Amino acid sequence: MYSAPRNGREATPHWQAARQGILRLPFNSVTGAPAWPPSSAPTNDGGTIEWRDCPTGGTIVSFSIVRRPVQPEWQDKAPYVVALIDLDAGIRMLSNIVDCDPETVAIGARVQCQFVETTDPELGLPVFRLEG
Predict the structure, then answer these.
(1) CA distances from 116 to 29, 49, 63, 110 (A)
(2) Could you give the domains of the chain?
């Protein structure tokens, strides 16, 4: 089980959708541009955040293998991969690459979003697995 993100913040719709197995991301309601991370403040053009269900594919643009976790709840998961992923939806997201040998992860690799339960029964967490 993964530790839960903090509830009650701007990204809460993202975490709630993840619990349902949906990748829901924020976009500017006026321009349609990605708006990650989300903010409750109005945009310069008067737009607001609009949440959309998105495709779950992406490409790794950078990553790090964590061998000494700082958080106690991650100790049994080390070594693990933290990656920047360019989602097909146009948003760059920081997440984990799971269920693989960390040494097989590479920049340019394609990944698919999967969802895991967290310690909060209302919030899920999107993580990624290598394709193939």
Answers:
(1) 29, 25, 20, 19
(2) 12-130 (2.40.50)
What pLDDT tens digit does each residue of the chain (132 aa) get? 788 887 667 889 999 999 999 999 999 999 999 988 887 776 778 788 899 999 999 999 999 999 998 888 788 889 999 999 999 999 999 999 999 999 999 999 999 999 999 999 999 999 999 998
**Long-range pairs for 66-75: beta carbons < 8 A, 24 or more residues apart:** 71/3, 73/2, 73/3, 74/3
Give the Cα separation of 22 and 80 in Å (integer). Answer: 23
